[in-house]
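Chain A, query sequence.
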Amino acid sequence: MKHWQETSRIVGRIAELAAAGRRAAMATVVRIEGSAYRRPGAKLLVEEGGATRGGVSGGCLEADVREVALAVMRDGAPRLRHYETGDDDSTVWGLGLGCNGAVDVFVQPATSEDALDAARRLRALLAGDTPFAVSTVVRGPVALLGRMLVTPDGSTEAAGLDRELARRAEALLAAGESKCHDIEAAGVFTEVHVPPPRLVICGAGDDAMPLSALAARVGFRVTVVDHRPAHLSPERFPDAERVDRRPDDGLDGLPLGPRAYPVVMTHSFAHDREWVRRLLASDVPYVGLLGPCDRRDEILHQIGATATGRLFAPVGLRLGADGPEQVAVSIVAELLAVRASCAPRHLREQEGVIHAG
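Chain A, predicted structure.
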């Protein structure tokens, strides 16, 4: 989910650089095998002065990818780089990191005419709320390398390839999966972009501020709802949509639905009760409620409801959290686990690769 916002920031920066007459190259993770820090679709933008934003690893690969990107800016030729991160540092491009994984990274010009045209289409789609796919030729005929097809429109200027790319992109969109695949003599990376989930925070108290900031940073679109305009200032919630609303005003117009995760934390028993009443009657998959168990039980009693699997109260994971910032970590960790249908546990308890589930 982080890729949507990361890509949006990167294509926005590309537009700024192009307007200033400066060059850049973009690196994208297109395939992983075994353990890897980032998933396919992760991006690193490298500017001609060497500045970067984004990332393709936890810092292990960025120095080499940066040098590759600078070379791509000099000669305009895209490159597909393969990294082995196991123990054998005698392997070509092996880094001897002991991570027992492999990563393919495609580096392409970001400010060429073709790239800017694709970036403009990307920016328009990323401003919306509809899933889409981008297919990029990462291996094959030199004339096609780096060509991008942005579904539902766009073209690689090879009609037969366009038709097959569109067909496969449609299937990958339905599956919500980004992957590399071969079409005739070309290797193609199709990246599926799914709009990020929404965190709706009911209550704009001081403890909502670190929750909003952290959730936005990890990839959620955040909306903060409160009836006190002074609490909804952009200084308090710079990364969130802000809605002036009481629970008695109802849910109409709020960004709810199957991909929304509301957390109720108004610190008013009456307001919390009414938000929970309405949210449990909606189709949201999750309702978080701040506060102890006896408070939750009294709210459920007063609204005539019983505990449900959708109600997470007290909200958050048991981390021994102390203070608003740590509570925010606890809540965001729970949101990520629920969204991924993943039972939280220590990674040391997992056998095999980290991202296996």
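Residues 89-94 have pLDDT under 50 and may be disordered. The first strand starts at residue 24 and ends at 34.
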